Predict the structure.
Amino acid sequence: MQSTYDEALRRLLTHEGGYSNDAADPGGPTNFGITIGDYRKYVKADATAADVQLMSVDAAKAIYRKRYWDAQRCDDLPAGVDYAVFDYGVNSGIGRSGKVLRRELTLTDDTSAVTDAVIAAARAADARDLIAAICDERLRFLQSLSTWPVFGRGWGRRVSEVRAVALDMAAAIKAPVAAAPPPTSLWGALFTAIQSIIRKS
């Protein structure tokens, strides 16, 4: 949902951190979670590690909004589900997160497209159950990777935190509060007060 985007992005940037170029990370040079591959794809075709290192946070935010949040139609997904799908897409690619979302909604996963049918099914589902299922699958997938021994502790903590926050986001969407009954008329209130005085006298 639109209302959860700012918080989702803030938390994502906290998880992703700043510049890194870990030899064990297949993403290569990365800044704010944006890999050199994404930077070359979306910003500068011949970008170097130095370009990635000098990337502004605003450039990273623009990529996240268009290529991850908007690409997965997160504004149309239920609160909490949007964050779980968004963070999964950034971490493991929107091709995977989209297919997992479809699969957990019992739709075909021969594509990762978040279509109108996906949006309708997500809105009809129990958001908390859907969030839990997405996060469970995400953790299983990460544990299957050869790099789990190196990055597993951080990944596991991240998935756990995303699950908790996403569930809170879903719980915060409450039914509208029923309108209060109309107040008693002024004359009616005055008449009641006078009767009370008379009874006490």
In short: The chain has one domain: 2-200.
